[in-house]
Amino acid sequence: MVFEGRFTVKVFLEFLGRMVRRLDGRKVFFIVDRHSVRKAKKVNDWLAEHEDKIRLFLLPPYSPELNPDALASQDIKRTSFVTEG
């Protein structure tokens, strides 16, 4: 799902709802980072109502070795691009 603007509880709940509807009754498991949106009360309440259809697993607070985005970010930060002038 592509969205404009900030990543909010509303955006995340829309994404989760779309996933649940598209999977036609199959349960989905998501491994996610600990962004504050993913830990919000509204998200937890929604997940409790849909526990038969979806489950989130939160990564440990700091675990770049488990998060592909963090690994890519680290790689980019370590690589220096030198241009000759």
TrEMBL record:
<dbReference type="GO" id="GO:0003676">
    <property type="term" value="F:nucleic acid binding"/>
</dbReference>
<protein>
    <recommendedName>
        <fullName>Tc1-like transposase DDE domain-containing protein</fullName>
    </recommendedName>
</protein>
<feature type="domain" description="Tc1-like transposase DDE">
    <location>
        <begin position="1"/>
        <end position="78"/>
    </location>
</feature>
<dbReference type="InterPro" id="IPR036397">
    <property type="entry name" value="RNaseH_sf"/>
</dbReference>
<dbReference type="InterPro" id="IPR038717">
    <property type="entry name" value="Tc1-like_DDE_dom"/>
</dbReference>
<dbReference type="Pfam" id="PF13358">
    <property type="entry name" value="DDE_3"/>
</dbReference>
